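Memo to structure team: turn this sequence into structure tokens by end of day. - J.P.
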Amino acid sequence: MKKSRSRAKIRKAVIPAAGLGTRFLPFSKAVPKEMLPIVDKPSIQYIVEEAVASGIEEVILVTSRGKSTVEDHFDISYELEDTLAKRGKTELLKTVQKVSRMIRLISVRQKEPLGLGHAVLCAREALGDEPFAVILPDDLIDSTVPGIKQLIKEYSQSGKAVVALEDVPDSRVHLYGIVKAVEVKKRLYRIKHVVEKPKLKDAPSNLAIIGRYVLPPEILEILARLKPGKGGEIQLTDALQKLADRKILYGYKFRGIRYDSGDKLGFLQANVVYGLKRPDLRERFREILEKELSK
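Reply from structure team:
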């Protein structure tokens, strides 16, 4: 029996990476913020690795002018590989080749900064008529089960759109899409209403949408018809509200710890945490941190 479109396997993921990265100026003037290293890997590589570990077969990278180094990172580097091979750097060669062979990657351009919803819409032709994931590169999720895989599991059971949720403090409510929702089972909520970056007094809860989504193909048609919303942009939040109105939008409080690598402190925190996870760095790194903190 043919599987219904709503329950089709999630094969593709959109990674919007067209932003200017102004929070990391002057670094991001010439280098995409997605290439900021978490220890020794660009932050976006962690995102692509999460997609691969979740069964994603194809990534659609939405970029803009000046982002070619992101694409290059996942491409074959003949000169580098040849040099490493000639010098007998076998392990480094394997590391480099693993990146270029990681996944099929398609790059599309978002020519104008018209919002997250518009960035997703830019991937429409590559997505076709099937459900898909969206993974925001600023949000690193440290978890046993990959963050987007947790959402894919929930989607596979219901066939309904599902987004990642996290409780945020009052002081950060204004930075997120905040939901009004009812819990239908442990960690799973049916979302009734979504508010984009509300003032605290207007927020329906402290439950924020975090950068992981599994969406049905019809959201692309919704986005195509949307008028610009808050900030004059095509807001993905507004399209999600349309799904909520149809009672087909759910939220899942993921298991894991999120680090906002698009924020200076979040970026530094991620480097400390991931650095301490490395057996080759852990002890010496801990000593350095303790020494510096004792000054």
